[in-house]
């Protein structure tokens, strides 16, 4: 029941936000009494925190390539680019899946105005991954200042997130409502090409 409540909460909080969703609605969605939320989470705020933690844990643990070890100090530029692109494309592949839809809505709201708890989760679970990528970008693009390399890293992640957050625009431009396997493969290929171009920088 705990998992069902979390998934119901993610979908509803993502679409309408914390204030607009009541615990009665979430409990009814999974056919359980409201007391279940109190029992498992202590209340609405605890459920919201659990929903956020579930999303970040899933991103870290289930998006496999996020856990690929990045190259060490003696790696070639091509090895670094390939490793960074693998992580970016893993995020992109997840964003193309239907499972990412409620997650993206939830996190999209939190990116605008993160709550203290979600900010802590981001620091603990997501930022270490992004800092690792930023270190690779700094090595590949030595002409960039430290802040510039970090900005480029966020932009790389943003390209992957666009596959979900700009799905409507992509669909209109490509003149299709649903992305078939070939379309998804094309989008991931172009994502990788764009990432490689950014990582190659002036030497491309």
UniProtKB/TrEMBL annotation:
Chain residues forming the annotated DNA-binding region: 22-41
Organism domain of life: Bacteria
HTH tetR-type domain span: 1-59
Keywords: DNA-binding
Organism: Aurantiacibacter rhizosphaerae
One Gene Ontology MF term: transcription cis-regulatory region binding
Name of the protein in its database record: CerR family C-terminal domain-containing protein
Matches recorded under Pfam families: CecR_C, TetR_N
């Amino acid at each position: 029941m705990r998992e069902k409540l979390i998934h119901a909460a993610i979908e509803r909080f993502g679409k309408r936000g914390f204030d607009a969703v009541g615990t009665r609605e979430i409990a009814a969605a999974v056919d359980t009494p409201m007391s279940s939320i109190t029992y498992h989470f202590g209340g609405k705020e605890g459920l919201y925190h659990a929903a956020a933690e579930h999303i970040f844990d899933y991103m870290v643990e289930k998006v496999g390539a996020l856990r690929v070890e990045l190259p060490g100090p003696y790696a070639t530029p091509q090895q670094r680019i390939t490793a960074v692109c693998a992580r970016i494309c893993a995020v992109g592949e997840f964003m193309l899946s239907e499972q990412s839809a409620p997650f993206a809505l939830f996190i999209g709201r939190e990116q605008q105005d993160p709550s203290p708890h979600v900010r802590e989760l981001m620091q603990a679970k997501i930022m270490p991954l992004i800092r690792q990528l930023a270190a690779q970008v700094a090595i590949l693009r030595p002409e960039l200042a430290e802040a510039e390399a970090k900005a480029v890293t966020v932009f790389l992640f943003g390209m992957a997130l666009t596959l979900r957050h700009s799905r409507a625009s992509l669909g209109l431009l490509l003149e299709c409502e649903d992305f078939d396997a070939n379309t998804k493969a094309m989008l991931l290929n172009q994502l990788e090409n764009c990432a490689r171009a950014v990582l190659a920088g002036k030497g491309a």
